[in-house]
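Translate structure to sequence.
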């Protein structure tokens, strides 16, 4: 995998919020003793960086807070799922660092474009990697682990994760994708509740029509366990089904168990039409989850 930055994925222009935001000093710590106690070093930088986006505008601050809080939950999810998988302390620390920085590009993205839609702005994953590299945030890690974290971040928002790369890199990429999706299900179900009550957040909208029904292509793909692509979406219901379809991309049983226990998919179903097609979709999805959990 080529982990060098692909600037074709990022719109040209200065991306840092404040040109004088400091680089991270290189530490003298031994690179062979990375443990969970090193995480505060990165968390302090992250908190300071996010603090530069504080705003008196409630519409801006709400979305900065939303992504900051999402990041904290993804960190916890990555560690908890990783523990269930039996990861050692060093790999748990690397998973937590990747989770901490997976959405670091979101803050400048929202500041500049007032949206979290990559399609309407920039690839936030590649953008975030540029920020980490420019400020030498990962500089005290060895190169292989810098690449592992960067690779996980670059791949966390891909529609499909290819099965190439070494086993350790794939494990971390899959872990971050699972932890991220698990919390996004919380974020979107919470937002759909607010939207139903008349509270809209333009930063989370995709300019999709809130019209009845679902698209035949989306129905066919999700029934057949296939990935739904953004280009096939015709309305907001299709987007909700894309989020339902993420279940086929979940990699680890501990993630599926949490998804079932928390009831996110049943919540999503409540925000979709009560049609035969939608019921068929959820029957297939719940069967998929139960089958995987039963197989172990």
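Result:
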């Amino acid at each position: 995998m080529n982990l060098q930055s692909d600037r074709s994925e990022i719109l040209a222009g200065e991306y840092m919020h404040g040109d004088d935001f400091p680089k991270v000093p290189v530490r003298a710590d031994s690179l062979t003793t990375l443990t969970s106690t090193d995480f505060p070093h990165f968390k302090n930088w992250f908190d300071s960086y996010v603090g530069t986006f504080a705003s008196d505008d409630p519409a801006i601050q709400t979305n900065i807070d939303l992504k900051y809080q999402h990041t904290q939950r993804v960190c916890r999810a990555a560690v908890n799922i990783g523990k269930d998988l039996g990861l050692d302390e060093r790999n748990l620390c690397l998973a937590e660092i990747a989770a901490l920085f997976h959405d670091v590009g979101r803050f400048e993205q929202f500041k500049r474009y007032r949206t979290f839609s990559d399609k309407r702005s920039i690839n936030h994953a590649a953008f975030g990697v540029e920020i980490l590299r420019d400020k030498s945030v990962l500089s005290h890690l060895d190169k292989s682990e810098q690449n592992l974290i960067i690779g996980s971040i670059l791949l966390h928002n891909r529609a499909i994760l290819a099965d190439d790369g070494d086993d350790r890199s794939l494990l971390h990429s899959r872990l971050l994708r699972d932890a991220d999706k698990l919390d996004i299900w919380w974020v979107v179900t919470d937002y759909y509740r607010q939207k139903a009550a008349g509270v809209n957040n333009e930063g989370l909208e995709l300019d999709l029509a809130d019209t009845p029904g679902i698209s035949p292509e989306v129905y066919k793909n999700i029934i057949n366990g296939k990935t739904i692509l953004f280009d096939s979406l015709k309305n907001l219901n299709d987007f909700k089904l894309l989020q339902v379809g993420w279940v086929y991309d979940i990699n680890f049983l501990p993630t599926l168990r949490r998804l079932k226990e928390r009831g996110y998919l049943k919540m999503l179903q409540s925000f979709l039409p009560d049609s035969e097609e939608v019921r068929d979709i959820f029957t297939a999805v719940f069967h998929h989850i139960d089958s995987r959990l039963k197989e172990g």
